[in-house]
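INTERNAL AUDIT FORM
Audit reference: QA-55
Scope: verify that the stored structure record matches its stored sequence.
Auditor: D.O.
Record contents follow.
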Amino acid sequence: MKSVFVAFAFRDEDRPLVSIIDHLAASYYIKVITGEDLGGEELTPAVKARIGIAQGLVALLTRRDEKVRGGWTTHQWVQDELSYGRSQGLQAIALIEEGVDVGGMYASNEYIRLDRNNPLKAFLSLASSLGTWKREAGRVVKARIMPPSLATKVKHGNGCKGRWRFMVEGKFGEWREAPIVKEPGAAFAYLNGVQDEHMIELELEVDHNKWRSEAVSQWMQVQLKEEKRP
């Protein structure tokens, strides 16, 4: 995971909270994207585009207007951004300030209660969620297609499809798409979502013929030679 969209009201009293979220994300090497500087409090195509390039979303639902019968409303456009992110399949979580009445609409989703006067517990929970997202997202691994004769078929064939799956403790995961990229002198498969403990199995279909690897370690092998002393 490289980036998260942070949905929040552009108010001075909320900026210290956003700053903490920014620092937490940075500690996981996650970039924060926001909808600021887009001129408006609504879910515009420009905001949707920014949400679309993120891998996760954090919504800060703070108090807006006090209700006659108690409780507070929150900011509709922040809720809209949260709902849109979830509709796009993003990992998403809401920080809901104490007293904010959302009518149970997030009961089926993970959320964190935020006490503005004592926010430590909420931000510790958010840090845990960000760490889980980062770990589950894994990394992108660039796998060189071997042997060279197969790479040549990939580079000069009429079409190539790739897919991969991981294996952990003898159990295989589901097959996932592996985009194939032709580069000068070689061809590579890009494997998205690889975690440290994964062994990798790769399958290619080239000109209607299939090629499959064994489940192999993702880590490079280094051969050492003994140095002879003079």
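Auditor finding: record pair retrieved intact. The two ends are 50 Å apart (CA to CA).
Action required: none
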